[in-house]
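Hey team,

Sharing the DNA-binding transcriptional regulator YhcF, GntR family run so nobody has to redo it. Sequence (127 residues) first:
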Amino acid sequence: MEFRDSQAIYLQIADLVCENILLGKWKANDKILSIRDLAVELEVNPNTVMRSYEHLQGKGIIFQKRGIGYFASEDSTEKIVAVRRDEFLANELPVLFRNLYLLKIDIPELAKRFEVFKQHNFEELTH
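Structure output:
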């Protein structure tokens, strides 16, 4: 994983965990990677992963079974979508609209390109 300077690493790791849940790699009540395993995989300090897991646990996205590990919550997908949707609509969509306007890109062209993007990037999820 390539970390960006614009956001804290623990939040980027939390986003990665959320993405794995949204993509169905970890389903509701599935055990997720241990702190140590994810730290090794990402080549980060285990304390950073711990902070990510605590952040997600505070939002109710994951929960801990003491001595067993962390698990995706029953309604983790819904919680992630709700939070990310609100953030996107409030923060990123206005920037996207501004760029569409300035670059004279219309909605039909955007919709066509979005369909191609989904086919190339998420085809395996729809089959």
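The CA atoms of residues 60 and 93 lie 26 Å apart.

Ping me if you want the raw files.
A.
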